Amino acid sequence: MGQPRKRVSKESRSGRAPLRFGDDPLLWASWLYYQEGLTQGEIADELGISRPTVNSYLADARAKGIVNISISEARLRAVTIAQALEAQFGLESCLVVPGEGGPRPLIDRLGAAAAQSLGSHLHSGDTVAITWGRTMLALAEAVSGTEARDLVVVQATGGTTATIPYTPEACATRLAENTGARFVPISAPAIVSSSEAREILLREPVIAEQLAQLDRVTCVLFGISSMRPDATIHTSGFFDSALKNKGYFDNAVGAMMGRFIDAQGAAIPSPLDDRVMGMELDRLRQVPRRILVAGGLDKVPPILAALRGGFVSTLITDATTGEGILRAEGFEPEKIAPKRRAPTPSEPALTRSDHVKKFINRPKDAVDEALTGALAAFPEHIEPIGGSLRAIRARADKRDGKVGVVIGGGAGHEPGFIGFVGRGLADAVVVGNVFASPPPDRILSCTRDADQGAGVLYIYGNYTGDVMNFDMAADMAAAEGIEARTILTTDDIASAGADERAARRGTAGNIFVFKVAGAAAARMLPLDECERLARKANAACYTIGAALEPSSMPDTGRRSFSLGPDDMEFGVGVHGEPGVSRIPLQSADRIVDRIVDRIFDEMRPGEGGKLAVLVNSLGGTPMMELFILNRRLMQRLSARSVDVHTTLLGHYFTSLDMVGASITLMALDEELAGLLDDPCNGFAWMKQGR
User: Fold this and answer.
1) Using one digit for the tens of pLDDT, what is the confidence trace for 601-611?
2) Mind telling me the catalytic residues?
3) What is d(CA 504, CA 545) in angstroms, rounded to the nearest whole number?
4) Would you list the DSSP string of 70-127?
5) φ, ψ for residue 272 (rounded to 5)?
6) Can you give the pLDDT at residue 207?
7) Whole-model pTM?
């Protein structure tokens, strides 16, 4: 049993909180009630105040925004009407709030529900378009921050009369302010006086640049207007009533973005079409996330038309409106209920053997046989040194006075290490057992072969065994009169904090460091300069990896660590080292966002900056999925107006058969970019001369 609660002394019952609670009793009352689960009576005892005072504190905390209560989006989606609307119209999601209850107007309740749901709809790097109207302004004002970064908010249309508070400018500005986004206005009226005036405006560079943002929109928040006389389409000055008198809109049931639609969602042609400045309806259909927020019985026909026309992927409405939409589709009240699937016999759980099948002979021969196969496949690039399979050199002419570059580490990262030996890259590579450091004598063999009288650079990942053995080899080389200097690669930002860069692991960023050092040596730069440039390249690289399935070792044929079927390892190392966290499996876009956000926090690339990019398979991830990751990565970099100078994508630095990927971003200046542009000829990276 727990200890009995200690009651406060009478001395503390003075009408104010004890000193240990500081000067903010509202905060502490809220914490004790919502986080600790105390009753109001128990809080009164803790704070030395009366129970009515506790009740008053809790109410004040809500009013002042200290406490924000949100309702589970999953619950709102689970409402019967929401499920029926999703099924009927093929929606990705539908949120339904109560049609009645509470003092707030329906518009405010819809705005609050939409604002709460934005967390699942807005993603880092999004360009968000928002229309205008009462509901859109309520939505924008209800938003209180977002975890998404690098957002751009753009008006979906030009401006309207300033006599209303819910103009396109007001809605977009407020949304941008409350999400920390960059705001892009449309510096033109929503409807201009003539098609000729529109053509003139479209030729204005500033307006053309603003409208071009609409082609980048990934999420659109929009309302819809009915055709009632008091609807916003009439009161805003947006609508040309003279055209209505001529019968152009007799069949219209609603309007979106200044365009009118009929009951089936088809656009109604009119003379306004050539006068509207904003997003076209065909473009609206192409936006990945199209969130319609609207409610009220007068909105049933236009919402239904928008649904039929394929303009909506997510609908946020109220129960009364939702029921009206379903009734208009022929649903009977008693049929507006989820269909219950008949119970089925339980199926046996799928099982996966812990043993992984491999194309190997004897496990102890796997590394040597793999190297034999590589030497046979690429004889024009690599050859053994002195008959050793574990010490390999480039088949490229070595000029006297050239700095030698020696790289290496454990096997299992192929084409890592051996694929980056050649002209303009490393001169020699030393290979250890799987995920194990090569011994000093082999490192020394490579050092001797690479030395052309100007010294040698060792470049390898920051791992204890590698450091020890390469240091021993450097001492042995020094005894022979060969100067060897070491560059430890430390690009894996998941392995240590920014203030502990020297403690980080070396991962796929190795590839860029090999290239820069090899190019510098090929230019016949002295050892000091080659070392400086290699260190500069390493400091410019930032990498994070994520694993969906662990790798398996050749000697055991079993997984190197356990990972649940619905989990992923974020920040995993290339030897299967634990990552930053084990999190639920996420979509490709969200994985990229998590990686990029973490890198951006430290790297902070500015607008107009230049980067090199590596989207790297950790072994078991196919090119198709790497292309999907790269697609999102380019969207995020484009949102920051970053210049991608070099992109590598594929198997570059693997972890055997791990199902996963890593992303490396390298910050470039002209010096580093020029070295990346120099020609090279390794079997894993071939680049023609400029």
Assistant:
1) 999 887 789 99
2) 413, 575
3) 13
4) ---HHHHHHSHHHHHHHHHHT-SEEEEE-SS-SSS-HHHHHHHHHHHHHHHH--TT-E
5) -70, -25
6) 93
7) 0.74
